[in-house]
Design goal:
- The protein has 2 domains: 236 residues, Rossmann fold, CATH 3.40.50.10260; 268 residues, UDP-N-acetylmuramoyl-L-alanine:D-glutamate ligase, CATH 3.40.1190.
- It has 568 residues and is an alpha/beta fold.
- The protein is built from 22 helices and 22 strands.
- Strands 1-11-22-21-20-19-18-17-14-15-16 form an 11-stranded mixed beta sheet, with helices on both faces.
- Strand 7 and strand 8 form a beta hairpin.
- It is elongated, with a radius of gyration of 27 Å.
- It is 36% helix and 16% strand.
- Bound molecules: ligand NPW and potassium ion.
- Ligand NPW binds next to helix 1, helix 2 and helix 4.
- The site of potassium ion has 11 residues, from strand 5 and strand 6.
- Its cofactor is K(+); Mg(2+).
- This is Bifunctional NAD(P)H-hydrate repair enzyme.
- Pfam families: Carb_kinase (PF01256), YjeF_N (PF03853).
């Protein structure tokens, strides 16, 4: 796990470190600038060589001399200060550097001011406006150091225009312009992953952003990644993400330890990383896959009951059931209305099958040894579904609440309570996992939906929802957020080198519900929150392993390969 720090947490850490006397702000800024410069040359080693007219790139650039050229766009805070450090370091490497500043140099914060003054003593600094940027020679590299974690409001239109004026290097027949963003592409909110327009937050559902927030090819951030690098529009805007160590102490590594519960006020990225180092998959998530670690009777690994819909609507339940069985449940039973029995019997072998007329008959098919339920996929929005959900949630183990069966509530099991979400939350308990997509989440928590939550991040929205429902909530997406009551939260991102766009396919969510139930229903399962994190990771891993062309059924069939691949 890797800890993600909000802007306020990053600032507090920097302040504490400076106040302790361990480091000065100027030294941190120097390290940040150096980190960006090192990352640039690691990403584009060709930039370390001078331009030569012999190369295609050099000839096209029509260079009068062999110097590489950078355009450094600086803002009114310390992000701009980093920009002036980068400008100085590139110049020291023989580059021609044009610098632009938004704002009044006299009002820069002290460390940024010091680096500005040092640079400006020998070099011109132009005002950051589109006309000036367009007039400057075409660069090899644009450094976006206008706004970082200090962005507090939408980017002013004149800055938007200036940011776009340098070009994005994608024009045909011209040498590439690489674009590096310091901390983030300016305009991206690092707490929320959203780009704000004057009129308020852009709805991430529509995936649009002002054309003038220029996408970076490389984003270099400091000490720790921030939620906005992984949420919403962040991954689409950041390009490649690099995190550089600037020697800030803190306890980020400990907080990101595998096996510890998430801190209430922190967010962690779900990945096989421990204390900053990659972990073998057999340790994480392997340790959370009970069947891989413990021999035992099939009942030791739990009995999962999955509800299926009526005639012609059983596919979702069947996929969830098969996923639960594959990932390790000892037994899985699909229950369906009597009319759908024949259809399901034709499609199932290892998964057992029982018909049940109504909630009052549930006891006939599910005894006390049932340790997990998946309820909702394909069931339809109805009073019947509500009745089943209530009867499943009412099955409690008395004082021994750690033995309450795990209940994974998904799809219609959630939507059936849209008219009165409170009537669901009266029943949900700590062993429940709600797995909504954005639409289902908005039905249960309308005030926390993207259109209504304003500047609140998706992470804080899911935390608030988990508090309200008193259970674990996993809000699906390429940026999946998992939270539990009390504030513990993590983010699972199918982004950057873990992008799996083909996972957006019908039925993938049903498989995830089955994986969660299959992993958590074992009597030997780990902490429920940790198991949900592992299920989210395995789900994406199966999609990545299968690759393009994936349909939901493939996820389950790919799972054995994934499990073998992580050394189980
Ligand atoms: N923390 C650390 O450990 C380290 C941090 N480092 C670097 O510092 C960066 C953070 O610096 P920062 O706090 O000065 O914030 P930054 O992003 O430069 O912007 C603040 C300025 O922008 C202004 N402003 C904001 N929004 C605006 C808008 N829409 N339109 C117009 N103006 C707007 C805002 O004005 P105000 O809101 O105060 O009116 C203020 O003047 C961080 O990203 C990293 O690069 C590194 O050096 C290493 C260690
Ligand atoms: K920036």
């Amino acid at each position: 796990m890797t800890e993600l720090l909000t802007a306020a947490q990053m600032r507090a850490l920097e302040r504490a470190e400076i106040e302790s006397g361990a480091v000065t702000g100027l030294a941190l800024m120097e390290r940040a600038g150096q980190g960006v410069v090192d990352a640039i040359f690691a990403q584009w080693p060709e930039l370390a060589a001078p331009l030569s007219a012999d190369t295609e790139e050099g000839a096209a650039a029509d260079v009068a001399q062999s110097r590489r050229r950078a355009m450094v766009l600086c803002g009114p805070g310390n992000n701009g200060g980093d920009g002036f450090v980068i400008a100085r370091m590139l110049k020291a490497r023989g580059w021609a550097v044009d610098t632009f500043l938004y704002g009044d140099p006299a009002r820069l914060p002290p460390d940024a001011r010091a680096n500005h003054d040092r640079w400006a003593a020998e070099n011109p600094v132009s005002l950051l406006v589109a006309a000036n940027v367009q007039r400057a020679p075409r660069p090899d590299l644009i450094v976006d150091a206008v706004f970082g974690i200090g962005l507090t409001r939408p980017v002013p239109p004149e800055v938007d225009k200036a940011l776009a004026a340098g070009g994005d290097g994608r024009a045909a027949n011209l040498p590439a312009i690489r674009r590096v963003a310091v901390d983030c592409p300016s305009g991206l909110n690092l707490d929320t992953g959203m780009v704000q327009r004057g009129g308020g937050p852009v709805d991430p559902d529509f995936g649009r952003w002002p054309a003038t927030v220029s996408m970076a090819d490389l984003t270099v951030t400091f000490h720790s990644p921030k939620p906005g690098h992984y949420l919403g529009q962040g991954p689409a805007l950041c390009g490649v993400l690099k995190v550089v160590d600037i020697g800030l102490g803190g306890d980020a590594l400990e907080r990101g330890m595998i096996g510890v519960p998430p801190d209430a006020d922190r967010v962690r990225l779900v990945e096989p990383v421990h204390m900053g180092r990659p972990l073998p998959g057999r340790i994480w998530p392997g340790a959370l896959i009970a069947k891989a670690r413990h021999a035992g009777h099939k009942y030791d690994h739990g009995h999962v009951v999955v509800f299926a819909g009526g005639v012609g609507r059983g596919g979702a339940g069947r996929m969830a059931a098969r996923a639960a069985l594959r990932v390790g449940a000892g037994l899985v039973t699909l229950v369906c209305p009597p009319a759908a029995l024949q259809e399901n019997a034709c499609r199932l072998d290892a998964v057992m099958l029982r018909a049940v007329r109504g909630p009052e008959h549930l006891g006939d098919v599910a005894d006390d040894r049932v340790t997990g339920f998946v309820i909702g996929p394909g069931m339809g929005v109805s009073e019947r579904t509500r009745g089943f959900v209530r009867s499943v949630l009412a099955r409690r183990a008395g004082d021994r609440d750690w033995r309450d069966p795990v209940v994974v509530l998904d799809a219609d099991g959630l939507s059936s309570f849209a008219a009165d979400p409170k009537s669901l939350f009266e029943w949900t308990h700590a062993r429940c996992v709600l797995t909504p997509h954005d639409g289902e989440f908005a039905r249960l928590f309308p005030d926390l939906a993207p259109s209504r939550r304003g500047a609140m991040s998706k992470i804080d929205a899911v935390r608030a929802a988990a508090d309200r429902a008193g259970c674990v909530i996993l809000l699906k997406g390429a940026d999946t957020v998992i939270a539990r009551p009390g504030g513990g939260a993590s983010l699972h991102a199918a982004a950057y080198d873990r992008a799996a766009p083909w996972l957006a396919t019908a039925g993938a969510g049903d498989v995830l519900a089955g994986l969660i139930a299959g992993l958590s229903a074992s009597g030997l399962a780990g902490d429920l929150f940790n198991v949900v994190e592992a299920a989210a990771w395995l789900h994406v891993e199966a999609a990545r392993s299968f690759g393009p062309g994936l349909i939901a059924e493939d996820l389950t069939e790919e799972l054995p390969k994934v499990l073998r691949g992580i050394g189980l």
